[in-house]
Task: structure prediction
Amino acid sequence: MNTLHTIAQLRAAVSRARQEGKRIGLVPTMGNLHAGHIALVEKALQRTDYVVVSIFVNPMQFGAGEDLDSYPRTLPEDQAKLHEIGTHMIFAPNVSEMYPEGMEGHTRVAVPVVSEGLCGSSRPGHFEGVATVVSKLLNIVQPDLAIFGQKDFQQLAVIRKMAHDLCMPVQIMGEPTVRAADGLALSSRNGYLSAEQRSNAPLLYQTLQQIAAKLQAGRRDFSAVIEEARVQLIAAGLQPDYLDLRDAHNLQPADVQTKDVVALAAAFLGTTRLIDNLQFSLS
Ligand SMILES: Nc1ncnc2c1ncn2[C@@H]1O[C@H](COP(=O)(O)OP(=O)(O)OP(=O)(O)O)[C@@H](O)[C@H]1O
Ligand SMILES: CC(C)(CO)[C@@H](O)C(=O)[O-]
Ligand code: BAL
Result:
């Protein structure tokens, strides 16, 4: 396994693999890899013959005052984890390789509607940054398959819509969220939590489970159920950013007709913002 830092080197390596008849897989990440990322890479290794993992903390998707500078950068540890499971190639460009003329006048990919609301409201410009960098990565690697986590549910919806609308010749696959034993979704940002915050953090997923249980038991007063959840999070010291029920297929607001629902939440523990979601069916 090699780590390449330039687009030209990576393109040459992928093109050699393709000439050997290999199917190419891509797993885009921002590094600081945990078992959630590893599950995506293992799926890519099962489904394709040559797996590229990109590691790039993309400044275009961070807003002012967010954690771009403090985001954990752990390339040697990431390399060891990826080597151990048989990853074929790491692509770890620096910012000037990806944005040689800077970000100011750079082309941007906007995916309306699905990018709006939820994380799109709290992080203006975030999904434009994600869609732009994922487009670049897809154009650089030209994979047959690209895999993303369902933990970032709205991000996955944005990327699927972008690939569809722009006729990108790639299969986009979403994989289930990997959780700690207490239910907390694994996330690089969990590393920012104090011991006390970490012990309260599983309440985010528990609250989503309680919302699902109430609706599956027959309640249809969506706003009251959401308000009860908000009150519970606040009482435990979590500050909800959003808590919402959407149609899992198109992220439009859920109503009493919606069959496949996703409950989505973002909440602050101190300055750390965690997200999670839970999909469930209503009859
Ligand atoms: N717990 C998880 N289970 C499955 N996939 C995950 C999990 N966490 C992240 N991913 C996926 O891994 C890919 C890279 O995500 P990223 O590097 O941002 O990791 P992260 O841990 O989510 O970090 P952050 O704290 O920035 O949200 C994304 O497709 C993301 O959805
Ligand atoms: C998809 C991604 C790698 C694009 O920077 C990032 O948003 C992430 O890690 O989820
Ligand atoms: N995991 C999504 C990337 C981000 O929070 O910027």
About this structure: The domain at 2-175 is CATH 3.40.50.620 (Rossmann fold).
